[in-house]
Amino acid sequence: MSHITEDYLSGVIRRIAVVCQLSDWSFVQEKFVNMAQNYFGDLIPITLSGTRHGVSVSYNIVLKLAPINEEYRVSGAVTVMFARETYVYSTLMKAYREILQRLPPQSQYVIPKCYYVQQEYCKEVIALQDMTVEGYRPYVHAMFLDLDHTLVSLKSLAKLHSLSFILQNERPQQFEDIMTICGPLTESTNSRYMDIMKDRLDKALKKFPASDITPVLQKLRKNCAKYFKAAVYSVQNTCICHGDIWKENILYKYEGNKPVSACVIDYQTTRKCCPAFDVMYLILSSTNSELRNKYFQQLMEIYYRTFEIALKDAGISSQTVYSRPMFDADMRVVAPACLITANTALWLSNGLQEEGHVRSKHQWTTKEEKEKAVEKYKTIISTMIDDLTNFGYMPLNEF
User: Fold this and answer.
1) Interval 281-290 mean pLDDT
2) Where does 70-112+140-398 sit in CATH, by number?
3) Which of 22, 86, 135, 292 qualifies as a FRET site for 153, CA 20 to 30 Å off?
C-alpha cells in the first residue's frame, strides 16, 4: 500500500539501532505465520541484532509504518490515528507499566514493549515488541470468537480499564493531560469519523430497503452523532478506553489449545469514553448471536469481577468509582453507538467496502460471492438488533 522501499526501511531500522545503542547491527525481515487485518499502514516483522557494550543482543520487532504516499493521507484520518497511537505507546503505556510493577500477577495487563516512535508527517513509525515470538497470535479460525476467547478478551479489557482509574486516582494531573490528547469522539471532535459511521448506515439501509429493522437503522442514522455524544456525556463515568476493541485487534496466547492470555493492540482510537462502550462493542462485533444469548450474563460477570479485583489490588473500591449498577446502566446508554460502530466493522470485515482509502482486505470477485457476503452481513446485523432488543438495551418503542 505504501511502497516501502528497502532504503527507507533500512533508514528506519538505523534510527532504532541508535536508540537501542547497538553497534555492528544487522536485521532480517521476517514473516508472520498469521496476519490479522491491518487497515492503516504496513506491518513488517524484523529481527534486529547487534552488540551493546560488547554483548550480543537481539530484538524481535514489528514495525508499524504509516503510508508514505500523500494520496493515502488526503482525508487526514491516517495522520490523526498514528499521532494518537504513538502518544499512547510513548506516554500512556509508559505510565501503565509503572503502575503494573506493583500489581500482583492476577491483575497484570499485557503491553508490548515500545522501542521507538517517530511522528514526522508521512514518516510515522512505531517499533513494537513482536508478540508472536512470545506465543501470541491472531484468532483466524472463524469470523466470531468462541466463549473461551471472549472471556479472555474481556478479562484483558477489564484490566485495561482498571489502569485508567488507577492512573486517575494516583496521578490526577497526568491523567488530565492524557485525556486532553485522547479526547472523546464526537461530531465536533472528529466529523470525518462520524461521516464514515453515517455512510455505512446508509449502505446498510440500501441492503434493508423494507424490513422490520429498517426503522431502527433509520433512527440510528438520524441520531448518529447524538448516540456517540451520549456514550461520553450521558453515562455514569468515563475512562481512557481502547475505542476499537474487536477480535481483529487482539492477539492470544495458548496453553494446549486453550487461550490463557490476550494482548490488545492497535490503539489508534484510544479515547475518553465509557467503559461499557468497549465491553458492548467487543461483545457485539466479535461474538455470534448464539453465544450472546447463552452467555451474555456470564460475559458481564467476568468483565466486572476482573475489573473489581484489579482495582482492589490497587487499593481502590470499584463501588466508589464505577459500581456494577453504574456499569449496567451505561450498557443501555452506549448500545446504539456500539451497534453503529459494529455495523461499520462488520461491513468492512465481510468484504463489502470496495471504495475509499480504507477498503476491505478480502473483496469478492464474483456476483455470487458478493451476494452471499451481503446475506451473511444482513443476518449478522439483524441478529445484533434482535439481541439488543431482547436484552432490553434497545426497546422497540424507542425506535
Assistant:
1) 98
2) 3.90.1200
3) 86
